[in-house]
Design brief:
173 residues, mainly alpha, two-stranded antiparallel ribbon, elongated, disordered C terminus
């Protein structure tokens, strides 16, 4: 017996992807903070540190963009493919970061310690910065609080948003 309110894992979810909007916001924030981080890397490690921080920022921003692109593309197709895309996308992106670091490991223009620290701090820092905005609005930044959306009806699937669930729960009481 199938519950009618439970989406099928074979059905996709139409519409724009919240993950893509969040990633674009992180890209904007990353470009805003980039000059400060590169200057900080130059102040601590010199020119090699500035190059390492700039390279790390590029890696991190590309990583976030690839993550969102995988999620956006697979969500439209099916939720099962989304799960596969997230798992294997993570492994592939981790491998790409490893490859990008491995290719420059002997470069004279790069401080490897600065690169490692910058990759870790930039990943965590941008995620924490974005988390502040997402949790403050209780939605991804592309949605405004208070804008209740109707249920999305697909061919055999009925999906409800948290806002519509809250509205329907409040009217039942």
């Amino acid at each position: 017996m199938k519950d009618e309110d439970t989406p099928s894992t074979l059905a996709g979810i139409p519409g724009p992807s919240p993950a893509y909007q969040v990633a674009l916001d992180m890209l904007k924030r990353g470009t805003i903070i980039a000059p400060l981080l590169v200057a900080l890397g130059a102040a601590i490690w010199g020119a090699d540190g500035a190059a390492a921080v700039a390279y790390a920022l590029g890696l991190v921003l590309i990583n976030f963009w690839l993550s969102a692109a995988i999620i956006a593309a697979t969500t439209r197709i099916s939720l099962a493919l989304l799960m596969v895309g997230v798992l294997f996308g993570f492994l592939i992106r981790l491998g790409l970061i490893f490859l990008a670091v491995w290719l420059v490991r002997d470069a004279s223009w790069l401080d490897m310690f600065a690169l490692g620290i910058a990759i870790i701090i930039t990943h965590l820092g941008l995620l924490a910065w974005e988390l502040r905005y997402v949790s403050a609005s209780l939605a991804f930044p592309g949605l405004k609080p208070g804008r209740a959306t109707a249920s999305i009806n697909t061919s055999s699937t009925s999906l409800t948003t948290p806002a519509s669930v809250a509205v329907s729960t409040a009217t039942k009481e």
